[in-house]
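Internal QA ticket QA-208
Title: Verify multi-chain structure generation after dependency bump
Assignee: T.L.

Test input:
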Amino acid sequence: MSEEDDFDLNDLDDKELVEQIQDDLYDGLDSEVTEGTEILLSRGWDANDVLGDALVAGMKIVGIDFRDGILFVPEVLKCAGAMKGGMSILRPILAESAEDTSLGKFVIGTVKGDIHDIGKNLVGMMCEGAGFEVIDLGINNPVENYLEAVDTHEPVILGMSALLTTTMPYMGVVVEEMEKRGLRKDVHIMCGGAPLNQEFADSIGVPAYGRDAARSAEMAEEHVRGLGKKRAHR
Amino acid sequence: MSSTTLSSASKEVTIGFGHPFVMIGERINPTGRKILAAEMKEGNYSRVVSDAIAQVEAGAQMLDLNAGIPLADEPAILAESIRRVQAVVDVPISIDSSIIEALEAGLEAYQGRALVNSTTGETEVLERVLPLVKKHDAAVVAISNDETGISEDPNERFKVAKKIVEHAADYGIKPEDVVVDPLVMPIGAISQAGIQVFELVRRLRRELKVNTTCGASNVSFGLPQRSGINNAFLPMLIAAGMTSAIVNPLHPELVQAIRAGDVLTGVDDGCTSWISAYKEQLKEGENPRERRRRRRA
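Actual output:
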């Protein structure tokens, strides 16, 4: 970058700054995104608007380009890092704000016996970028972990991931247990992972199979929008 | 010197220090191959057979066979795949499944000395897989993760590998029949993944004196021009002391990079294999021996 390219984010008007944050998010520039977020807030922007117009809109572009093979995994991970920077400023404010425009909570975790997490992490960050509040349970989750998370967080969506043919049937165990407890009507379940296919997903009663991270986030968003209200969470 | 000898009904292959790097063909694996998965599930093995032949023609010294298809009878499909493949090619096979029944069915169907792919360091898995390996006098791939997951610390992964080798010994399986997979993580997500594996391979060779293998192409997951990364990675693994890998031999540049690795580490003595593989083809009908005879006459 040459010297002339350096400029002060404070010199941009609101519209330019929002576009600049989106560009910086795309380029994975953590400190620039954080700074831009702070400036918008200092100009009296509502935290929900900063999230929606700058960060979520920016991550949407990232998601599309990732899906289309224009961006690659290391780049998307950097974008997610930059998004985290902005979120670290917004999260405490959003938590206290009366108005909540998030799409709701998305609980995600890799099933018991399975320790793979890169795909799951990508889905998590895409969903966060789409406007969900993502709760990541990590790897190797027994059914109890999912039940507890559903109970504690009351998510709109529960996502399960597996990378092994031996561990993916465990998703069915979780689904059965949720059915038994009458939890399925409250929570939309999604599944994904390399060895899965639509047929398997249907067989465990989870037709919402996300074949890749970008598609999973799209499907999650479609589901919530389909509920016909912006605030789908309870 | 550690040598793992595998065989088919008619051919032996040795994975070992000082031996040519063994390319284990990865293509017969339905994960991510929709058409192959559908065909195997409905009992159509034509693609399994043609893939086996193509990989061996391309230079694979062994083949990996995996039948992990959702909602299918994996043991039966794996066993039948083995029979079909052994009917057309003579290279030894790596029987690849995480389901014990499938490994068992595969071993029952197999002729020769197989490589069982795989056991992890999880005690429960070890206790199921190792007796089977011993019963069939096979060798086994040992993946260096355990109940706690895949550690990013090479020392932890070394400890897991050591634990598996020791457990195997308890079952009467020799260290040379344990081929350790140090686990290759995507470099696009973990920038130290390459360095970690090189370090681990060196230690496994120096201290445990075991052979090593890996699913090498995982390293380039999520990157453009994956083959460029893969083709550089293999010779680096060879330099670190790795002795085999599960790769796609249908990429000629990858096969060439591996063979070059053997030349550069001095394993391909006199560059014999390299020369015979890559010497420019003589004109049709011309045969060096005849030409020499002509000259003498």
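Spot checks passed. The longest strand of chain A covers residues 105-110.
Status: verified.
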